[in-house]
Amino acid sequence: MKKLTPIFALLLLIGCDTRAEQAPASSLLAGGAATAAEFLDIWRAGNMVALIRHTERCDHSENPCLDGDRGITIVGRNMAEQLGKFFTELPEVDGGVYTSPVKRTEQTTTAMFGDNHVKADWLGRGCITELYHQVLDTKQPGENLLLVTHSNCIMEFGEADGHELVSLDLHDFESFGIVLFFHMDGDLRRKGHLLVTDWPTFLTALRSLP
Q1: Complete DSSP assignment for 121-186
Q2: 108 within a domain of the structure (yes/no)
Q3: Angle at the Cα of 110 from the Cα atoms of 105 and 111, rounded to 5 degrees
């Protein structure tokens, strides 16, 4: 797998012992320095899973399309490139990048991480019934797992087992490019999310750590 230096440092409350008891995911900006430091420990250990929504889709916007009307816009491409730069500010850790084979997700993934990624239908058409179990099967010890997918897939994450790991409505413009983080610690435990506009504030918090 490609070495990654993602910048998804988070600040969120630690999850409960079971998925069924966990509170809805909240912004990592709601945490503090101690939570940020804890996240970095999780990231450095390669115990993080990140679900990433594709950036601005062409058929939901009046902005110019990047390439045809089934992909992302030029604004979306720029947004994805910025997210990729954010990732490079995290410590370098082994990781795997997977994407839904749908054009808008693959374009987002390429803009963020380049061509070294794997297409997986369980991040696209098969996500509703397969995503949770595929994450558990694909996650390797010591490697962070970065998954570019769709809003409906993220919102249904964990529902196959009857446990709601995500409690967000992701059907608005603001949530394009949102990243949700989960700690892999025997089971998945949600840590929180960052919108694209949250990153500068979050990075400032990370830089202030001793």
Answers
A1: GGGTTTHHHHHHHHHHHH--TT-EEEEEE-HHHHHTTTGGGT---------SGGGTT-EEEEEEES
A2: yes
A3: 100
Q: What is the CATH number of the domain that holds 140?
A: 3.40.50.1240
CB 11 within 8 A of CB 36: yes
DSSP 139: -
* φ, ψ dihedrals at 52, nearest 5°: -120, 125
Question: Is the residue at 210 inside a domain?
Answer: no
Asked if the structure places residue 8 within a domain, the reply is yes
Contact 99, 119 (CB under 8 A): yes
Contact assessment for residue 100 and residue 127, using Cβ atoms and an 8 Å cutoff: yes
d(CA 18, CA 84): 32
Which pair of structure tokens corresponds to residue 18?
């079971």
51 phi/psi in degrees, rounded to 5: -100, 125
pTM of this prediction? Answer: 0.85
Number of domains in the chain: 1
Q: Which domain holds residue 90?
A: 3-205
Residue range 83-130, pLDDT digits in tens: 999 999 988 999 999 999 999 999 999 999 999 999 999 999 999 889
